[in-house]
Amino acid sequence: MKVKPNHCAKLTKWIGIALIAAGGLSACEGYDLADKEPSWLGSSIYDYLNDNGNYTNMVQMIEDLGYKEVLAKTGSKTLFVADDQAFDRFFKSNDWGVHSYSELTLSQKKLLLYGSMINNSCQVAYLSSSEGPTEGDCMRRLTATSQYDSIPLLAPSKMPESPYWQYYKENNKTIPCMLDQTAPPMIHFIESFLENKLISNEDCNFLFNHVTERKAGDANVNGIMMEEQNIKCSNGFVHKMAEVITPLPNMAQLITQKQNTSDYAHLLNRFCAPYYAGDAATREYNRLYNTNVDSLFEKRYFAERSQGGEANVLTPAEGPVNGTLKFDPGWNQFYSTTTSSTSTNVALQENMGVMLVPSNKALDYYWNEGAGKALKEKYGSWDNVPDNVVSKMINVNMLNSFVNSVPSKFNTVLNDANDELGLDEQFVDSVFMTCNGAVYLTNKVFNPVAYISVSFPALINETMNVFYWGIEQLGFDVYLNSQNTYYSLFIPTNKSLLEYVDPCSFGKTSTQLFRFHYKESAQTEREKVWASIWNYDTETGQVTDSIGEANYDQITDRLKDILDTHIVVGNVEDGNTYYRTKGGSMLKVANASAGMNGMTVQGGFQIENGKSIKVEHVYDESLEGNGKTYIIESEPIMTARKSVFDVLGEHEEFKAFHDLLQSSQYLETRHTIGTDIHGCASENISLFNTFRYTVYVPTNEAIESLQAEGKLPTWEQVDSEQDEEVKDSLRNEIELFIKYHIQDNAFYVGQGSDSGEFETSAYKVEDGNLSYYKLNTSVDNSGITLIDGAGATRNVVKKDGLYNLMAREYQYDAADAGQAKTIYTSSFAVIHLIDGALQYKKQ
User: Fold this and answer.
1) What is the b/e burial string over 245-254, where b = at least 16 CB atoms within 10 angstroms of the residue's CB?
2) pLDDT score at 24
3) Residue 243 has what pLDDT?
4) Is 407 left (phi over 0), alpha (psi -120 to 50) or beta?
5) 462: left (phi > 0), else alpha (psi -120 to 50), else beta?
6) How many beta carbons lie within 10 A of that of residue 703, not counting itself?
7) Residue 426: how many CB atoms within 10 A of its CB?
8) Interval 290-326: pLDDT, tens
9) What pLDDT is attached to residue 134?
10) Distance, CA of 718 to CA of 726 (rounded, Å)
11) What is the crossing angle of helices 45-52 and 56-64, to 10°?
12) The overall pTM is greater than 0.85
């Protein structure tokens, strides 16, 4: 018998459905059913529930919401159902205060039905597969719920205590306000997901407060266990639940609702505001609720990641905010991260967030007796603590990844210094699941390292907010928060940063001054610091013409250089005089033990100009934190302006070495790297390569003696030589001599003790192998002793003005130094006079 084509198509469809029912397909897949189904597929979802007789509440809900037609004949659905006994228990105790089916509102019915329905046909095993499909990668998925199913009318008495809600509170205006403009997903824990993400049964028992003992194969949805799985129907699957499923709140909702987290909720809700939901959303609200309001609002939080993964960092009036959260805790469809190959829906399915929320008792202890006592002493009350300071504490207690924040992985949870946070089960009293994350109710506050960091004074003091803005914009906060390092941090106040001599102007005809300013009212964070540029006379100290404003790249370029110059790894009160900064320059510190009563600091620029900077205040964070902070107000620490060649030219005692270097090939005013050309501020030594160096200068007599003895050629001999081979040999001897007097690492008399063999710039090639000549070097606070390749001992001559001389050699972003905008790179050097010439080998 010949089969008609349309019958073949239907037969193919039924075979496909059978494969799905038998587990032959690898993910939740939607499919359309015809009006008549083969009897071997079983009855429809509606008929199954209606015929059973023990699901009268579910059936009534389906009928009341006009869903009978969908679930009786067509569609492809998965329904998580509760029987009448479960509803009896629900009506005896629920958060809604309803005691019978007749008391349920239309919105509540929608939440119960649509929140327990998936618009796909899914067996339990496939619930844990994300789009792709990727097995064992899904823990959340969207349901049939809409963001419009339940929209509360927010009365003034229920609004947060913050300026953004004040207008509605003062005018006694009740507003329709969505708690989020994305629909809440359900969460489910299925065996293959737990195995794939290495979440143990013990982890699950913790997550559900040890009220159950999880066994292999157990499955739950929104925290409710499945009693019977995979009931096959002609238009999908039914899974019987032990209790009634209710949609979960988001993290912000739950924290706000719980009485024992009300104090923390007060802090959290300082970062939220009512935003207009849009014309389309307002029209839809009016249509669904048969009303005619002017505006529908939504509650959103100021956060680096909010709806759609985008930042929400402006107020409803599009003004700036003073602090942002790591993510929006009210964003129902929060996802931890996305990549170019991962859709937002998959990212939502794979993970959710975690918030560590202290109880009122824990927060009170933290404020009055714990690490927060420093805030209390500074501000007096939580309400006086600025948002940008409070956000540090909230953010360290916000975790981006739920799957990496279960007890078996607590040791991988990091703080704001990327060190272990110290999370432990003993600090978690209970766990609450929400639609966008887990809330761990804690009996302690996990203190942000920012509160005990050397940068803390800049965080809480508005007179230092330019410097702190630079710390955050340039990512120095994590570095300075490290508790494994002792820092000495010099913080220039805003006042001192009005006196920053621009190193990018050192190659220009006129020296320029940057004056940094902080603008609290700026719309975006990156606009909060701006800088005016002025012509400046370094000899008279007079500021003359204004020549414009710096752009963002110039501002961050200079602030990075400033930060590098003001950070010392180590203790500047350990009895030495010279200290290396993070950027490689050296600081000279005097009277350190006097603190604010006489301690001074100098950079190379201050030394060149005979000035020193007084330390005005000292903050000691060394007991619980990571070092000491020194506040300076007159001007920022600035590095040397002069190059090595500049310094050599200023001293008659260096003339012989200066003349050797001048006629060599090792001076440049432009540095070429491939096709890139970088202008220099002065004549730079081309041997330098973004590092720090020591230049040892023999006395004039020592060099002249070698030349007289014929052990070191003169440039006159090179110029007069006619034989090119001999000429090259003579030239190489002089240049090898120069290079052997330039050593890697910058050693200062007064920096403390160091010793070893250190490479110079001189090298040899033997059998195709390059090796550098070295100097045996011993450094302490009394001097520097060298043993050269010939075995001779030389010493630094400790004569004022002839040792510990600082230099810095700049390369700029432009080939013409007069057009420089930013520093491309630089090298640091120290110059010492030594009592004899160095020989790389015996002669």
Assistant:
1) bbbbbbbbbb
2) 36
3) 98
4) alpha
5) alpha
6) 21
7) 8
8) 999 999 999 999 999 999 999 999 999 999 999 999 9
9) 87
10) 8
11) 140
12) yes
Scored b (16 or more CB within 10 A) or e, 381-392 reads: ebeebebbbbbb
The pairing of strands 613-620 and 769-780 is unpaired
Nearest by Cα to 238 from 388, 99, 48? 48
For the CA atoms of 335, 338, 341, 346, what is the dihedral angle to 10 degrees?
0
Compute how many other C-beta atoms are within 10 angstroms of the C-beta atom of residue 358.
Answer: 25
Residues of the chain below pLDDT 50: 1-27, 30-40
**Full strand arrangement of the beta sheet holding 175-178:** 153-154, 175-178, 297-301, 272-276
Q: Report residue 61 as tokens.
A: 């809900």
DSSP 732: H
> What is d(CA 840, CA 829) in angstroms, rounded to the nearest whole number?
21
Cβ neighbours of 418 (radius 10 Å): 11
Cα–Cα distance, 476 to 496 (Å, whole number): 20
What is the per-residue pLDDT for 37? 47
Q: Six-digit token pair at 687?
A: 């041997």
Closest to 87 measured CA to CA, from 58, 109, 108:
58
Query: How far is the C-alpha of 187 from the C-alpha of 248, rounded, in Å?
Result: 9
pLDDT of residue 827: 98
- Tokens of residue 697, six digits: 């200068």
Task: Report the distance separating Cα 612 and Cα 606, nearest Å.
Answer: 6
What confidence score (pLDDT) does residue 41 get? 58
Give the tokens for residue 596: 């604010």
What confidence tens digit (pLDDT) does each residue in 482-494 have? Answer: 999 999 999 999 9
Give the tokens for residue 797. 């001559």
Compute φ and ψ for 83, nearest 5 degrees. -80, 180
CB 608 within 8 A of CB 591: no
- Rounded to an integer, what distance in angstroms lies between the CA atom of residue 421 and that of residue 58? 46
Query: Sheet of 586-590: strands edge to edge?
Result: 567-569, 487-492, 627-632, 613-620, 600-602, 586-590, 578-580
Q: What are phi and psi of 274, to 5 degrees?
A: -85, 120
- Integer Cα distance of 495 and 633 in angstroms: 6
Parallel, antiparallel or unpaired: strands 224-233 and 220-221: antiparallel
Residue 212 contacts residue 412 (beta carbons within 8 Å): no
Q: What is the 3-class SS of 742-776, one letter each residue? A: EEECCCCCCCCCEEEEEEEEEEEEECCEEEEEEEE
Asked whether 374 and 451 are in contact (CB, 8 A), the reply is yes
- What are the percentages of helix, strand and coil residues in the chain, rounded to 5? 35, 25, 40
> If you write DSSP's letter for every residue of 529-583 in order, what string do you get?
EEEEEEEEETTTTEEEEEEEE--HHHHHHHHHHHHHHHEEES-TTSS-SEEEBTT
Largest CA distance in the chain: 118
| Length of the chain in terms of residues written | 843
Q: CA distances (Å), 493 to each of 516, 520, 616, in order?
A: 10, 16, 10
Residue 19 pLDDT: 38
The structure tokens listed for 386 are 């600025």
